[in-house]
Amino acid sequence: MRRHLITLLILPVILFSSCKKDDPVEKILDHNLSKVSKALLENSELVSRVFTDTVIQIHPGVEATEIHYLSMEGYSMHIFVLEADMKQAGLQLKPLTPFGSTAYARQTIPDMLKYAQEPGVKPLFGANCDFFNANTGEPRGIVYLNGQAVRTTMPGDTWGFFGITKTGELIIGDSVDHQQRKSELLHALGGRHRLVRNKVLVPQTDQTIEPRTCVGFTEDNVLYFIVVDGRRFDYSNGATFQKLGQMMVALGAKEALNCDGGGSSSFVINNPRADILQMRNWSSDGTPRAVANGWSIVSTN
Predict the structure, then answer these.
(1) Which pLDDT score, from 0 to 100, does residue 275 have?
(2) Residue 4 covered by a domain
(3) 7 occurs within a structural domain
């Protein structure tokens, strides 16, 4: 394959595509930006300059975009965005739990994904979700698995949840929504700060800057997970809840929710070049942290 000499003024977009199944081809498309980078540049005031912009096509309807950019404040940033068109046949949203069980414990997202593999089901992506008790692994929020209510309490009115109903509707809600719609939930896991509500950015008072994980979805059933790396000045500096919400608004999210962050933030894909589970972000712990639960996108084709 011919490779181009990339100058400082050329931003490569790397796409993995395939003419036949399981035979990905790497292409370098000069002078192009991904649609995620374009959305952040055009629909927000977060990005001053994009340094590198990489797109990995994991599966039809599922793409991971990795962006290194300079923030408007002059800080280096690395973010990881998973886009999944949930209208695509054969794609499913599945919760991840330690060892694939309902018992409270802790396990890394790469290891949880191994338990999601079964005949006819291929994990494509995984990310961490709820906050948790570090000693016991008990999540802070609700847990619904295949319609079973494993944990039904929430820490407070400002906490939220994300999930999918028995009819296939993506849902982000608060304690009131939980009480009203708990009988409808197929899968649900807890989260905290509501970032976007009915397409409107939710104001945030907490201005701390940390590594972050969040989830959101658009009106036409496109699901987004975003991980923002942080705590490394020369690599990536993290984000506030407000900026996290602005990212989701820029991508067209109707609803968005903050998940656990810090060293828990994990962005794992099934890399099509080698068909292996690979953590793409750089955890602030240095290695993947064992967490209480997470989410996966799987293919049943």
Answers:
(1) 84
(2) no
(3) no
